[in-house]
Amino acid sequence: AIEEIKEKMKTVKHKILVLSGKGGVGKSTFSAHLAHGLAEDENTQVALLDIDICGPSIPKIMGLEGEQVHQSGSGWSPVYVEDNLGVMSVGFLLSSPDDAVIWRGPKKNGMIKQFLRDVDWGEVDYLIVDTPPGTSDEHLSVVQYLTAARIDGAVLITTPQEVSLQDVRKEINFCYKVKLPIIGVVENMSGFICPNCKKESQIFPPTTGGAAAMCQDMNVPLLGRVPLDPHIGSRSCLHGHYSCHSLFKEKPETGRRAARWLSVHKGIQEFCNLHQSKEENLMSS
Amino acid sequence: MKTVKHKILVLSGKGGVGKSTFSAHLAHGLAEDENTQVALLDIDICGPSIPKIMGLEGEQVHQSGSGWSPVYVEDNLGVMSVGFLLSSPDDAVIWRGPKKNGMIKQFLRDVDWGEVDYLIVDTPPGTSDEHLSVVQYLTAARIDGAVLITTPQEVSLQDVRKEINFCYKVKLPIIGVVENMSGFICPNCKKESQIFPPTTGGAAAMCQDMNVPLLGRVPLDPHIGGHSCPQHMAGLPRAGQAASALWLSSCFPGIQEFCNLHQSKEENLMSS
User: Fold this and answer.
1) Does residue B13 belong to the interface with chain A, where contact is any CB pair within 8 Å?
2) A131, A157, B25, B202: which could form a disulfide with B152 (CB 3.0–4.6 Å)?
3) What's the average model confidence in pLDDT over A170-198?
4) How are beta strands A75-77 and A70-72 bridged, if at all?
5) Cβ proximity of B159 and B197 under 8 Å
6) C-alpha distances out from residue A44 to A9, A13, A153, B252, Å
């Protein structure tokens, strides 16, 4: 399977895993925004793969609930939200979004293998893989299946409080153990500005210094800090990808929010391009 | 499990909604009565939060002739977690399903809980190995029911509906749903913001649709995130509107009533 997947992944330039030891920190939300952010350039082909088998959030966040996956001679077709942005998730294979996927590890691994081997992504510049929280079957499997295909690196998502950072340190150690390069850490839900009085509250208080302190301790880059934003929670659900689009296309009010996301995205692209240059230098020498 | 009267699972399809925080506060809440023996078992093998939340980091588990001893935070409140078995809290537990299942089996079989009134089992998010295993291993021992935790926004509710369907499939009674992070009151101007907006009616609408009880709704409370549970519980009298006060007054009594009713029904069945 590893060789088959390596062949399939030849048309995929960059592969980025979005990880967190902790649940509910915004991995899927970040993955969706990263996918949209990269796809703002129409000449960039982006693929978003959701390997959270039990709790697949990507279809809802992307406004693609109810969409179905089609099979053809060349494999499964992803669901396209834009011409240059295709999505795959177990969510598209369920008859109802409320259906529980009650599978043990081996069955989940099988699904992930199928996603990597059988989906016809075509020529892709960035494949973003959204993962469930933890350091278990899904994480081991995706790293193993992509061994020969080479993952550029992982973005780790956290929130500022210690109970999240503790799990994210474990995830950093997971990356070291499986030799997965770390692109950097994003701190979500980093403060909340009351829309009424504009006072900032630390809803998830960084009592141990937040992601900044953790990144310094563990010598990993901090890609950015993004505040809590109720609009993310609401529009992405009602209007699908509207919230992602509005974030990147609208002006002044969202300008500040968008700027934070965009600087994180830029950091990720730079890492991938540097990675690619190093590889090309190695191969030509 | 014969010495354990009531067994409650704390579940959620979704991560980060406050399962461990709720489990810890439930354990402390029940243990407020010194005559009630409480046990808290953390079966989140990859991300064991209970030691930190309970202020028990660095504690070690001891083995004796009668099995593993839980870590006691109070005389009547014992805790077990894989977190106590790690050399460092940053150590990743990178295990596939079968190894996690083995650990859960050991926790249920080898821990010497003693006489316990309430065993609370904190779980990781999802509907996979850990959840299937704990239900299967406890089949003969009879679980009273499950408390499901959610936050108000649809992306959480979607996963919690799956968890409700999981409970139906494995015939696990549902005690009810708790909606955490239900609004935030700015400490400065007191205006309420819906940080995780209930665009589809929140847990109340979901509970009505799916015919399960809503045990309570609890606001976002920065004090919860900032302090460990014992510190926070100690400050409870001043907490006022804080999350833990609401859990105590609205959610915990509902859970106790369910368990007692459950017990009465069983006793009636056995004596008839």
Assistant:
1) yes
2) B202
3) 93
4) antiparallel
5) no
6) 16, 11, 19, 53
Q: What is the pLDDT of residues A91-119, one digit of tens each?
A: 999 988 889 999 999 999 999 999 999 99
CB atoms A28 and B155 under 8 Å: yes
**Which CATH architecture describes the domain A1-284?**
3-Layer(aba) Sandwich (3.40)
- The answer to whether the CB atoms of B184 and A192 lie below 8 A apart is yes
**pLDDT(B69) > 80:** yes
Q: Would the CB atoms of B126 and A132 count as touching at under 8 Å? A: yes
Question: Which residue of B16, B90, B162 is in closest CB contact with A99?
Answer: B162
Q: Which residues in chain B have Cβ-Cβ distances shorter than 8 Å to A175?
A: none
Distance from the A58 Cα atom to the nearest Cα atom in chain B, whole angstroms: 9
Mutate to test the interface with A, among B186, B209, B231 (most CBs of A within 10 A): B186
Contacts of B165 in chain A (CB under 8 A): 98-100
